[in-house]
Write a sequence for this structure.
């Protein structure tokens, strides 16, 4: 007579829970990929949750449960584009921000940041163009636009303070001046103009940022 060995109930519960979490994470990722593709192809207004669900091969209810309504979907895409990972990460806690604060010179800090801006905008700028168009008629997206803009301005003031610790900024520039210069050039609009419209390569854009910032901010 054969003997059947059953896994302990605690192990089975952990396995089942882990399996469910894995399936939920996979669904969420497929939903976000589908949403990004459709928003970029059709625009915000013409994209429906039902269409996103069909492309992701899930139900509309799963879309709502995994991420939320259409504004929440778009917000999540923007936040993960900024963070560069599956979940949003505060600006100062991102890897490049930690590396930049540890860099010993102004040139080294700006080189790290220029590379980060280029990578971020490759993900974010196409979404930003959709956001810019939709924000005029969608209050949820207008709020998102303001939040991102205000957060970026705050982050630039903090970045300017970090650059000032090197002692090599131009003496005639205030920290607000420094923040404004960087803020204007790390934007999705600036990236879109040069890379998406004028056909610059991302590497040329990164190199240009480093050179321009060094010329503008040091004397």
């Amino acid at each position: 007579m054969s003997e059947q060995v059953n896994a302990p109930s605690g192990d089975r519960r952990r396995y089942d829970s882990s399996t469910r979490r894995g399936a939920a994470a996979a669904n969420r990722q497929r939903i976000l990929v589908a949403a990004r593709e459709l928003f970029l192809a059709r625009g915000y207004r013409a994209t429906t949750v039902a269409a996103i669900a069909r492309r992701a091969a899930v139900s509309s209810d799963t879309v709502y449960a995994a991420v939320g309504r259409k504004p929440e979907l778009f917000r999540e895409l923007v936040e993960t584009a900024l963070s560069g990972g599956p979940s949003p990460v505060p600006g100062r806690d991102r890897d490049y921000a930690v590396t930049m604060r540890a860099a010993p010179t102004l040139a080294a800090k700006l080189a790290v940041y220029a590379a980060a801006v280029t990578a971020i905008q490759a993900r974010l700028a196409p979404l930003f163009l959709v956001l810019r168009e939709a924000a005029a008629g969608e209050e949820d997206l207008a709020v998102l636009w303001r939040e991102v803009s205000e957060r970026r301005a705050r982050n630039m003031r903090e970045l300017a303070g970090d650059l000032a610790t090197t002692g090599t900024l131009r003496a005639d520039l205030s920290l607000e001046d420094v923040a404004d210069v960087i803020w204007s050039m790390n934007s999705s609009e600036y990236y879109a103009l040069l890379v998406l419209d004028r056909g610059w390569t991302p590497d040329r854009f990164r190199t240009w940022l480093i050179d321009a910032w060094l010329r503008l901010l040091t004397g």
Remarks:
- The first helix runs from residue 9 to 42.
